[in-house]
Write a structure and sequence with these properties.
The protein is α/β, with parallel strands linked by helices. The chain has 6 helices and 4 strands. Helix content is 24%, strand content 9%.
Length: 222
C-alpha cells in the first residue's frame, strides 16, 4: 500500500500507514505491533490462491491526480457530469470541489468552501472485504468518523468479495470518498455482467464520487 495511506482500523492499519519507527520503551524494545485485522473469506482465499503474491491488479501505480496544477478542482466544469474529459481540471460536483484559498496557501478557516487537501496528499488507498460484515461495518464507521477533507485523500479502493448482494454496502462506502478515482477488484476477472452491474453502481453515486471511472480487475485489465 502506498505511502500516505489513510490510516484507519479495518481499512489501512496504523502500521501500514507509515514506515517510520514508533517510540521505544525504557528497556529499548519496540512497542508491540497492533493486532492484525482478520478479514473475510474473500481476501483469505485470494491470498491462498496466489501463494501470497500480489495479483497484477495490485501492482498498478496509484492514479496520478491533478497534474501538478494547484488550481485543479477549484472551479466548476460547465459540462458537469456530462463531461467526457478524463483529465478535466474542473470539479463536476460540490462534493469534490477543492477550496481555492487552501489550494493557493495551504491554509483556510472556512467550513463550506470546499475540500482542504493538497495535491501531494491525494495518494490514499484503502481496502475492504465485503464478505466480512465486521470489516464492512468497521470501514463505514471509520470513514464516518473522518472529516470530508481526510476522506478526500483516498484515490483508490481495493474491494474483495464483491457480488450483487453486497452492492448496497459498497455504495455506502464509495459515497464517502469524494476524490476516488479507481476501484480495484483483485479477486474477479472481467466479465460483461459484472462490468455492467458495476457501471450501474457508479451511476448511482455520480455526485458523490464524480471522478470514479476506472474499475481494475484481477489481471490488471481496466
Amino acid at each position: 500500500m502506498a505511502a500516505g495511506v489513510l490510516a484507519q482500523d479495518g481499512i489501512a492499519s496504523p502500521a501500514s500507514a507509515s514506515t517510520a519507527p514508533g517510540p521505544y520503551s525504557a528497556d529499548g524494545m519496540p512497542p508491540p505491533a497492533p493486532p492484525m485485522r482478520v478479514r473475510g473469506t474473500a481476501a483469505a482465499e485470494l491470498l491462498a490462491a496466489t501463494g501470497g503474491r500480489p495479483c497484477p491488479a495490485l501492482l498498478r501505480p496509484l492514479p496520478s491526480v491533478g497534474g501538478h496544477d494547484n488550481a485543479w478542482n477549484t472551479h466548476r466544469c460547465h459540462d458537469a457530469r456530462k463531461c467526457a474529459d478524463r483529465a478535466c481540471r474542473f470539479y463536476h460536483s460540490d462534493y469534490e470541489k477543492r477550496c481555492e484559498v487552501f489550494a493557493r496557501s495551504g491554509v483556510c478557516q472556512g467550513q463550506t468552501c470546499g475540500l482542504h487537501v493538497g495535491l501531494h496528499e491525494l495518494n490514499g488507498s484503502l481496502e475492504v472485504d465485503l464478505s466480512s460484515s465486521v470489516d464492512v461495518c468497521s470501514t463505514i464507521q471509520d470513514l464516518s468518523a473522518k472529516t470530508q477533507h481526510e476522506r478526500a485523500k483516498v484515490v483508490r479502493i481495493v474491494v474483495y468479495g464483491f457480488e450483487a448482494l453486497r452492492a448496497t454496502a459498497l455504495k455506502r462506502i464509495l459515497g464517502q470518498l469524494p476524490l476516488l478515482h479507481e476501484l480495484v477488484l483483485p479477486d474477479l476477472v472481467r466479465e460483461l455482467n459484472v462490468a455492467v452491474f458495476l457501471c450501474n453502481i457508479m451511476e448511482d453515486v455520480p455526485l458523490l464520487t464524480p471522478r470514479l471511472r476506472d474499475v481494475v480487475f484481477k489481471d490488471g485489465v481496466v
